Amino acid sequence: MKCQNQFSITILLISITILFYSTLTSALEEPVYGYNEKSENGPKHWGDLKSEWAACKGDMQSPIDLSSHRVTVIPNLWKLKSSYKPQYATVSNRGHDVAVTWEGDAGSIEINGSDYFLQNSHWHWPSEHTINGRRYDLELHLVHVSPQPDGTNKTAVVGLLYKYGSPDPFLSELVKYIVEVPDEEEKTDIGVIDPSKIFKSSKMYYRYMGSLTAPPCTEGITWTIDRKIRTVSRGQVKLLKNSVLKYYAKRNARPVQILNQREVELYDPKAKDTPHY
Fold this sequence. Notes:
single chain; 277 residues; alpha+beta
């Protein structure tokens, strides 16, 4: 009888172990798309994974390399300014990144006479955009939308680049929330967050037309990349990496895309009155 009980307990423990590892394996299945360039669901294959992601094979894709020889330098008569304001926000794990989403009107930026209202911010490691071939350690995207009369939205993204150095003040505010970032698709309230602490204005910036840098890779996105390079600590980047779902996003930066004759402008307050290449 004693042997039978021991046998039953052993079978029970084995079953629990199998169930545990089965659940773990299921949780670690390949995501729908990934960033491993050698994988069948890597960046080169995104446009083939779903019909609605066909734009990933388009001619106006992002990110790009912002090389000096490709850029039209223009006198900066229009300093990019934000009109942000504090608003309640949430933090979420979207599987491939960590995002802060503002739940109400958090203000806007103005581009070509149109107001684009701030929706969310999220991070890519390392940076997606490069400058003269240099890839930085982190890139923050501030996503904005401008509602149109036909019910659609135009999208504009402001990109901020970071190199390793002093801690980033915005991430320092979020540390306690990111450490406990919930599972994918869940949100955690983080109170009132002032986006003007992230970005206020830019005197020198790049501007070009591109796409979302992850599926569905929608094109027609107005990109603004601030030329100022900020700093972030190694610990903060590690925190972001470790917080994302399992181990999928040790790297979540899409490779640079072909420019395809697109115009890239650099607004520079020190430029001469005549644009030049």
